[in-house]
Amino acid sequence: VQLVESGGGLVQPGGSLRLSCAASGFTFDNYYMGWYRQAPGKGLEWVAEINSGGDSTYYTDSVKGRFTASRDNAKNTLYLQMNSLKPEDTAMYYCAASQGSWGQGTQVTVSS
Fold first, then answer.
1. What CA–CA distance (Å, rounded) separates 29 from 40?
2. What is the rounded CA–CA span in Å between residue 30 and residue 84?
3. Which of 23, 24, 36, 101 is most deeply buried (CB count within 10 A of its CB)?
4. Greatest extent of the chain over all pairs of C-alpha atoms, in Å
5. Bridge partners (DSSP) listed for residue 91
6. Is residue 60 exposed (0-12), middle (13-18) or buried (19+ Cβ within 10 Å)?
7. Residue 69 DSSP SS3
């Protein structure tokens, strides 16, 4: 089982990034998928979740209206589109599957 995130980087406030999470080794479309983040010196925070079919999404209040989770089950890939980024979105972002697997994370830094 493997989850590999990509797409992080340095972006200015107000900018956008699209994170990807490539899954392998399990039946991707059987499981809910989630995004989490951990800012420097802080605990792990749940960001978003998407159901197995991709037609229901859930978000923490601080990202509602700015972030969009989606998935392509044919490609075994999870996405997080992040718009209107703020400095407080700076964190390591992780994807996770509801069967307990986690990726290694991708760093997002929002700074001018």
1. 32
2. 31
3. 23
4. 40
5. 108
6. middle
7. strand
CA neighbor of 37 nearest in space, from 56, 60, 11, 10 = 60
pLDDT in tens, 6-65: 999 999 999 999 999 999 999 999 999 999 999 999 999 999 999 999 999 999 999 999
Q: What is the spatial distance between Cα 95 and Cα 72, in angstroms, rounded to a whole number?
A: 14
Tokens linked to 110:
């929002």
Instruction: Report pLDDT digits (tens) over 76-87.
Output: 999 999 999 999
Question: Cα-flanking dihedrals φ and ψ of residue 61, to 5°?
Answer: -55, -35
